[in-house]
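Hi L., both proteins are below.
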Amino acid sequence: MPRLPQRLAASLIVLSALAWPLRAEPPVPLLWKVSDADNSIYLLGSFHLLGEDDYPLSADVQAAFADAEDLMFELSPEEAASGALPMQMAQAAMRRRAGDLRGDLGPELWARLQAYVASNKLSMAMLEGFEPWFIGLTVGILEMGKQGLNPALGLDRHFMEAAARAGKPAAGLEPASEQIAVLAGMSLDEQRQMLAEALQQAEEGPTQARRLHAAWRAGDAARLWNEMAAEMRRDYPALYARINVARNDAWLPKLEQRLARKDDDTLVVVGALHLLGGDGLVEKLRAKGYRVERICSACAH
């Protein structure tokens, strides 16, 4: 889940252009088991866009899926797969305020966007009809696509399809309208930050995305926290609070409801950002007194 624009990109289509190096070992999972006296949930940190060589998954993850009676995702499989979702997002992103995009961005950010548009042969006229957050999201998706990462191969999509094949019920932690509202509700200042972040990543090239993807594959929670979550919290505190802390707090009671059931385990697949650090679901559930353990056979080696 590399940084902000790429973290929010799962529902849109990207083009795969470059192949990642072949890897013999499956990814080391960011997987925790949270238990009370008679029930458990598994928390699995997702990378929303992956490549073909990120599969197969580890035996730990396969065992958690086999043990779970049902699954939960950020969005329900029905909404995530809905053809109406990209249109919903685009409609929410259409400019409705007075003024124009150039005035919203200011000279420096406008010039950077112009340079990006020109080098990627995009239509500035089309982009000018949208809010800055949507343009930042689009830039992030395009850059991830250049690295051969695709939402159709993301961990969320993989398990949505696996649940359907296995006949396991699957639900969402929030409706798509709430997820879109998180983006559409940004202040103009926050939107400028998001676009600036996306353009900075594009200007720096693929190094950051590759590094974070490698950290996810290695199951390196500390590195992901330091290079993604802690950095976002420091540089974009309002955005971090909006897309991470507030949503985690809203999801927590729903996870506790699952734990309150008896002998009915659930596999919860969400973006890795939501599991990391003191604001993450893992530590929030630990603080409530549940038993928490990392499941990672590969970590012993």
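That was the first. Here is the second:
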Amino acid sequence: MLRTAGRSPTSPGASRPGAGTAVGALFIATSGVWVSLSGTSPGTASVYRCALALPFLALLAIREPRSEAPQHGLSLAAGVLFSADMLLWTQAIAEVGAGLSAVIVNLQVVLVPALAWLVDREPVTRRYLLAVPVVLLGVALTSGVLDGGGTGADPALGTVHASLAALCYSGFLFLLRRSGRRGPTARSYLAMMTTAALVSLPLGALWHGIDLFPGWAAIGWLLLVAVCGQVLGWLLVAASLPHLSSQVGAILLLLTPVGALALGAAVLGERPTPLQLLGCALVLGSVVAVAGRRES
């Protein structure tokens, strides 16, 4: 298994990083359903999902050993990118459709390993290169694009917004992995979410406005986003990614659209088509093929 310099093998996420990332990705998959049920604007959802997570993250950060100082520069940059990703992707859903926006933002499976190769000189394996086309086809099928999921109010502008979201998302994942290798996980992640909440306030207000009190029902749904997505999901990913290669981490995070499809069927009554089920099978098969093999 890949070990990262400067991190103890007994640190959170080190013993089973693949399982930790997979479980985290499935928690993150719930976010879209809860945001949809909240009925709030992109700015409102972005601010609340981060702000409501801060008390939980602060409690975890207080309990974390203080032998290492967090990398504030990386954490702040990651928080800005996460805020931009949330706003751009949520907007793209209405403009280009949920299906195509999901496909475009998951280009992280290509972009994150490319960043790791360019910046950290991390080698790209043959197994991963062979899996990428299958993965992209699987995500496209899972999203419903080939079943008419690429429709929206403004497809051209939505494609631009989703592409920018993919770049921000990839940058966030790259910095999340780096910050976890260089400092305490909970305190670094707390700094990221604090930054994301603060940045989302002005950006969301300029984007499509922020409702500072959207109602108790909406706040309840957004609290679920905060707990499931920001605390349980992304914190687990943050603790696990530094102990995986960028390629395996990127592949495992594709469990998010698969989980979202399953949850949409269970909670919202959505019925996946045969092509979407085939896409899920391709993604899951790729996860097993790439992430199921222990790294040396």
